[in-house]
Design a protein that fits this description.
Number of helices: 5
Largest sheet: 7 strands, antiparallel
Strand content: 25-35%
Shape: globular
Number of strands: 9
Structural class: alpha+beta
């Protein structure tokens, strides 16, 4: 059935009319005459807006390791080493494309998380971000949920002989790997690729 042809109808003069009304325009022609003048400015406006948005997007500066603030994690690591009964893990032999841009050691995270917490943030080679989060706070699930922005279990992955949980945030674009060590919960999380998260987790060794 041709919908446009169905619109091409002719009015019938009502009883008592002196003459029949003029026939309506064919449906397709009528729609072109009525709708095109109204929608053409809107379509042009939308196209111009999209073009401007794309221009702004491409003009935005991309993260450049040369301009990223690189920090020395040694003070935070020294504090973690001095903390009693705090076992933590550090990456070894990371490529030069990784850069530390944040590091701190807290004896208390907030009113809910009271255990010590070592955080070291990295800019990954793909310009995504990765956070190494470690704590002996209990219960461990509460620390993990906070660091992963609400974890939803995906699967288990074996990395360097250790089984890690792969989770995603239910509030952000964020993936995480979680490992429960003998004393410490270790979270490797961020916006970098899962491959980078796995490579980073594989490099972790007990820190000094």
């Amino acid at each position: 059935m041709n919908v446009m042809n169905d619109l091409a109808v002719t009015d019938v003069a009502p009883p008592g009319a002196d003459a029949p009304r003029a026939p309506r325009e064919p449906g397709a022609a009528y729609l072109r005459r009525v709708l095109v003048p109204r929608w053409r400015p809107i379509a042009i406006s939308v196209a111009v807006t999209l073009a401007l948005a794309l221009a702004v997007l491409f003009a935005l500066p991309k993260p450049d390791p040369a301009t990223v603030k690189v920090v020395d994690p040694s003070p935070a690591i020294a504090q973690a080493s001095a903390a009693p009964d705090f076992t933590f893990y550090l990456p070894t032999a990371l490529p030069d494309a990784w850069h530390v841009n944040n590091a701190r050691f807290d004896t208390q995270i907030n009113h809910q998380l009271s255990g010590p917490h070592l955080h070291i943030g990295y800019l990954a080679p793909d310009h995504g971000y990765l956070g190494l989060e470690e704590s002996t706070d209990t219960p461990r699930w509460r620390f993990v949920s906070t660091m992963t922005a609400g974890n939803e279990f995906q699967d288990l992955v074996t990395i360097d002989g250790q089984v890690w949980g792969h989770v995603v945030s239910n509030r952000k674009v964020q993936e995480s790997l979680v490992w429960y060590g003998p004393d410490t919960a270790v979270v490797v999380t961020g916006t970098t690729s899962l491959a980078n998260l796995k490579a980073f987790a594989a490099s972790l060794r007990v820190g000094q």
